[in-house]
Amino acid sequence: MSFLVTARKWRPLVFEDVVGQAHISTTLRNAIATNRLSHAYIFSGARGCGKTTTARILAKAINCLHPKDQNPDNDCELCREITDNRSLNVFEIDGASNRGVDEIRNLREAVRYGPAKGKYKVYIIDEVHMLTKEAFNALLKTLEEPPPYIMFIFATTEIHKVPLTILSRCQRFDFRRIAIEDIISRLQFIATQEHISIDNDALLLIAKRADGSMRDAQSMFDQVVSFCGNRVASKQIVEMWNIIDEEFFFRTTNLISAKDVKGSLLLTQEILDAGMDYREFLNGLTEHFRNILVARITGSAKLIETSETYKKRYIECSAIFSENDLLRLIKIASDTASAIRWSQQPHLNLEIGVMQMVKMDSSIQLSQLLSDLDELKKKDVRDEDTSRSTRQRENDKHSPEASLSRSFATITSASRQERPNTSHTPAAEPLALYASEAKPRSTTIPLAVSSKQEPIVTRLSIDEALGKWTSFVDAARKERIAVGSMLSETRLVDIQADRLRIGCPDDFHMDALKRNRQFLTELAQRVYGAKVVLETLLAKNQPAQHPLNQSPVSNDTPTTSTDIQQHPVVLALIKEFNTVTVE
Q1: What is the 8-class DSSP label of residue 71?
Q2: Is residue 268 within 8 Å of 351, Cβ to Cβ?
Q3: Closest by alpha carbon to 122, among 162, 102, 93?
Q4: How far is the C-alpha of 398 from the C-alpha of 426, rounded, in Å?
Q5: Looking at domain 6-174, which of 3.40.50.300, 2.130.10.10, 3.40.630.30, 3.60.20.10 is its CATH number?
Q6: How many CB atoms lie within 10 A of CB 435?
Q7: I need a labelling partner for 525 at 20 to 30 A (CA). Which of 75, 320, 370, 559 fits?
Q8: What does the pLDDT look like over 507-542, one tens digit per residue?
């Protein structure tokens, strides 16, 4: 006997043998069992997924003389005629070569006559989308109301080209691409029946290359057997088809992780010397990165179509790259494959693309970056608060309030030693009253010395302080107009050594200057060229005369820090305790 290709020799004869289309087989068998057959069916799907085969099985099942479980027995006369393509009841028409309106008119005339044998006269039109618009229009009336003994079965790989008026008159079945596992199982069955030894890796290579088509897989199987004989190994298939081995892709990822530019150039040269297809390499590399990404996201290799050995390696490799890095690598590989398609120098594009992958920097999560910036800001604020508190404590030691408190303690201690203890205690009440009134409402703003080597003035004269005050206010207004405006509404009340006392009209101005103390620190250093302390005081109803020639700013604020003897609290103490003088 002459050789019969595997796709024809092992073509399914019953519904169960149609691989990967159980949803369609079950529906058709139930329709036969319940006598709910439609007058028109349309089968759509990719090439080699069983459309025409299913149409033949359906034609045999409805005409079989001795059906078994809604399947044809394939032994009766009608089944053998349909299998041998010599039946007078089943007509297979090629839509590509019989696409005109004249052929459809002849078909309309033929459907008037009933079947010569059996129950149904079946018309199977393959690639029905190739019919012309006029042919479809001529078929509409017959397709909608055919004789009861007529059945139309259309098959197409491009369902979108079929007019909606045709689709609405048919029951539509969409055939799925056949899974790799189903193709491997079917090929293993055929190899066993043909007494051919083939390993699982070789079957996987064939199934992946078939891309969901059983007919393509069976044709490749015949080619492989012709090359290898009855013992087929995966290495022989790689050599025959010049397939890029997965080990080659793992070498590429190792070079990328190691940032080995020289190795990447040698790799592209190896691809050129081996005669590999550049686009096939890049497409395989894209799938390789996809497998690593899937392994990293899912933590398993169940969704990866490869051997168990490589599945373990994908799990190990998933820890090297981040998800964002893998997405960027996939983008580079895809863009390079597209560029090579129209490039006059494909090898150069390949080299550039591989080097881009090797030189690519690691991705940084934006959320992590923002979190790090927030931590740095918090650390800076804490350091600034600590430094500010330290400076405040140092300045408080030398402030007028601290000196006055120490004077209170000295006077009280001396008075208690000179005066005997009596039972007259209400005298302590005026002291508490005067101490409460004498507490100045002021804020001291320490001004730190600049890091630049500038001359430090240990004492400012009155004339110098007044002369530079206007410059100080103008400089503040130029740099920060709001702060400068606040400062212009205050007055320089007093100066002693390195301390400038500024009278503020209300608490609002005092708080505004306090909030901008860092700015005022730097500005005073530049204007006065000295380490000074800026003290703000509440000065309500102050005369608009020369500030330094006036009496104290308010009744409850002392004029200077050293004239303690003239302070109201000191005078009250002298009167209460009969003290003549205070040293």
Answers
A1: B
A2: yes
A3: 93
A4: 33
A5: 3.40.50.300
A6: 15
A7: 559
A8: 888 888 888 877 887 787 788 777 777 778 787 554
